[in-house]
Write a structure and sequence with these properties.
With 338 residues, this protein is of the alpha+beta class. The chain is built from 3 helices and 12 strands, in the order H-H-E-E-E-E-E-E-E-E-E-E-E-E-H. The strands form 2 sheets. A 6-stranded antiparallel β-barrel has the order 1-2-5-4-3-12. It has a 6-stranded antiparallel barrel with strand order 6-7-8-11-10-9.
Length: 338
């Protein structure tokens, strides 16, 4: 029985239409056109938004296990971190308990010594918190703007500090904001004292390297790398004892009488977000007497001086009579003696 060969050619219906290469070129051109149209004219943006909105519940359901697993991991790590933090806090509290007791005792001794020596009490510096809003638009200066102004009690010249040290000084005050000149600005100058040698100087800002420089120090001055500089408090603006900078480099040049001393600020001028404003020390010192009070005090002093001048002859007369009586007594005694 002869085998019949099967006709494997496709039916005539499937042979109709363009060729495969033509379809490839057409759909490739269509895809490129849709991409360009979507990029330039956002043609498919509404359709994409509708699809994304419809798929959002499904995405949330599919991402829920991952979110639960991440939350469980954060909860576990948070508990462990909280336990470690509590342990460290308890150790620090135990270590500082003895120090706090010594500080209280030293404060009482200091108060008694000041009373004994009749010294003026220390000035309690007032402060208020502020937040840095943005950098000043001037690219040639190092200034920031904070969210406290004259309506909040900010005064011109107020020192500004962060958690590490001196940050700058208020140079402009507006009703709701203030402008702070940082210690790295070219016009910034802070009177400082070396905590090791107690030698005073002035630290200037150097915006080129975002640091500071201790100028006009003799080439043989006792300054070493690592020395801590604090505010001296002699300018009446900064309270004494605030950290300012640390000596990073000392260059003793033979061709100059002054040494080049590079400092690193203790504060973080570029990273500080929350700061503290201090009222100038000079504003909290006892006020000087007014002209009327000074005139009254002068009048009282002159009246007291004139009273003492008028009383002086009388006392002299009494003093003159006393020697006469004494002389008479001595004469009588000498006359009676023979």
């Amino acid at each position: 029985m002869p085998l019949v060969t099967l006709d494997r050619s496709p039916p005539p219906f499937f042979k109709q239409g363009p060729s495969a290469f033509t379809r490839l070129m057409f759909f490739s051109a269509l895809a490129i056109f849709l991409m360009v149209a979507d990029t330039r004219w956002k043609v498919t943006q509404p359709l994409r938004a509708v699809v994304a909105t419809m798929l959002q519940p499904m995405q949330s359901v599919l991402l829920a296990p991952q979110a639960w697993w991440a939350e469980a991991g954060h909860y576990t790590s948070g508990l462990e971190q909280a336990r470690l933090t509590l342990h460290d806090s308890q150790k620090k509290a135990a270590a500082q308990a003895e120090r706090v007791m010594r500080v209280d005792q030293l404060e009482r001794e200091n108060a008694r010594l000041r009373e004994l020596l009749a010294l003026r009490p220390r000035v309690n510096v007032q402060s208020q918190a502020a937040e840095v809003l943005y950098d000043a638009p001037d690219p040639f200066t190092r200034k920031v703007v904070i969210d406290q102004g004259s309506s909040h009690g900010v005064v011109l010249g107020s020192p500004v500090i962060d958690d590490a040290g001196v940050l700058g000084q208020v140079t402009r005050v507006y009703p709701l904001t203030s402008e702070v000149t940082l210690v790295t600005d070219k016009d910034a100058a802070v009177p400082v004292v070396n905590s090791r040698t107690r030698q005073r100087g002035v630290a200037y800002g150097t915006p080129q390297v975002l640091g500071m420089e201790l100028r006009f120090m003799a080439g043989n001055a006792d300054v070493q790398v690592g020395d801590e500089l604090q505010t001296s408090g002699l300018d009446g603006v900064y309270p004494a004892g605030l950290p300012v900078a640390k000596v990073a480099q000392v260059d003793r040049r033979a061709d100059s009488a002054f040494a080049r001393i590079v400092l690193v600020p203790r504060s973080q001028p570029d990273n500080s977000r929350h700061v503290l404003l201090l009222h100038p020390v000079s504003d909290q010192l006892p006020e000087r007497p007014s002209e009327a009070e000074a005139a009254a005090m002068a009048a009282v002093s002159s009246a007291a001086a004139s009273g003492a001048h008028h009383a002086k002859p009388e006392s002299a007369a009494h003093a003159g009579r006393k020697p006469s009586a004494a002389h008479a007594g001595s004469s009588a005694t000498s006359g009676a003696k023979p």
